[in-house]
Automatic annotation (TrEMBL):
Region (Disordered): 318-337
Domain of life: Bacteria
InterPro entries, per the entry: Glyco_trans_2-like, Glycosyltransferase_2, Nucleotide-diphossugar_trans
Listed name of the protein: Glycosyltransferase
The Glycosyltransferase 2-like domain, residue ranges: 12-171
Length: 337
């Protein structure tokens, strides 16, 4: 069934693309039928995050095939998945915003379930992967981070790594007002939701190509999440510092007493080394952690554009319809290298 498309569709789907040429055809083959089947008006916004492969020409070709429901935002460089999603949100006009990955790990057929849940009156529908299809170390590391985030923030997301989510227009208007340089979209949006819920979804193995996240970029992303939504790590260090000062003061007293009553102590040198190195590690980590916060403050105050949109491929009619509220102000930041 084809539904006449209107300037303000019910559903906007935002998909970030970074070097996904190998899998795009398969994505289109499942995504468009899944959305046509919903029987509602929709638009798909692909945001090309500075791909260096053929993704752009494949996206342009797809835009020519389905210009009524397709728009393509082209960045001039690689700014990261979350910036790409934010750029998509700025362009999106729907009442229900869906995000998903381009690699088919999030089955497009689940979009219908998200939309159905949103129509029940929720303004944030998260999703929990029934069985995650990723390499083991990532699954475990991600679970551990999920638990840590659960403890140090007041964001309640069961499965934070999954991008297949739906957001209401009220939530996205607020997200669009934020000027955060380093952020984590599902957590930021959660902050603004009045009535969030979650559903269980399927998860598949990457259809083609490789993960675009290196260990380094994963660590950095997790720091974005932690520093962006919690000050507890800093407070933990203050507490640890106080506890250590107290314990070492006791140790001084004990050693002093020992010196006075038992004489000089010469053994235990290597134990002392071990303890010293351990605490050096703790201190270095503490300084690094502080740096993670300070560096982000620095990026924020420089207030450079968060990303640069080179071109938007869209129909003329789309161009004329007004952008959604609060779309102008914000953009500060730096590209991911
Ligand atoms: N992505 C992006 N910019 C980046 C890295 C990734 O736009 O710098 C996109 C990528 O094309 C995909 C989504 O973000 O659509 C998730 O990436 P990926 O599947 O590689 O991550 P993983 O599933 O391994 O966490
Ligand atoms: Mg993936």
């Amino acid at each position: 069934m084809t539904v006449p498309q209107i300037a303000h569709p019910e559903v906007s789907v935002v998909i970030p693309i970074y070097n996904e040429q190998a899998g795009l055809a398969a994505l289109f083959a499942r995504l468009y039928p899944a959305l046509d089947q919903l029987g509602t008006s929709y638009e798909i916004i692909f945001v090309n995050d500075g791909s260096r492969d053929n993704s752009v020409s494949i996206l342009a070709e797809q835009f020519r095939k389905r210009p009524d429901v397709t728009r393509v935002v082209l960045f001039n460089g690689n700014y990261g998945q979350h910036m790409a999603i934010l750029a998509g949100f700025e362009q999106a006009r729907g009442d229900i915003m869906i995000t998903l990955d381009a690699d088919l790990q999030n089955p497009p057929e689940e979009i219908g379930n998200l939309v159905a849940k949103m129509r029940e009156g929720y303004d944030y529908v998260g999703s929990i992967r029934r069985k995650r299809q990723d390499v083991a170390w990532r699954t475990y590391a991600s679970k551990a981070m999920n638990r840590l985030r659960e403890r140090i923030t007041n964001i309640k997301i069961t499965d934070q790594g999954n991008m297949l989510r739906a957001y209401g227009r009220n939530v996205i208007d607020l997200v669009n007002q934020c000027a955060e340089v380093n952020t984590f979209v599902p957590a930021l949006a959660y902050r603004f939701a009045r009535n969030p819920t979650e559903i269980v979804v399927e998860h598949e193995e990457r259809a083609a190509g490789e993960s675009k996240y290196s260990l380094y970029s994963l660590i950095r992303l997790n720091f974005d999440l932690v520093t962006g939504f919690s000050l507890i790590p800093l407070q933990f260090y203050s507490m640890l510092g106080m506890a250590m000062s107290f314990v070492s003061a006791l140790l001084v007293l004990v050693l002093l007493a020992r010196r006075l009553f038992l004489g000089a102590e010469a053994e235990g040198v290597f134990t002392l080394f071990a303890i010293t190195f351990f605490f050096m590690g703790v201190i270095l980590f503490g300084i690094g952690l502080l740096g993670e916060y300070v560096g982000r403050i620095f990026q924020q105050v420089r207030a450079r554009p968060r990303y640069v949109v080179q071109t938007v491929l869209q129909q003329k009619e789309d161009l004329q319809s007004p952008a959604p509220s609060g779309a102008e102000k914000r953009r500060v930041g730096r590209p991911h290298e």
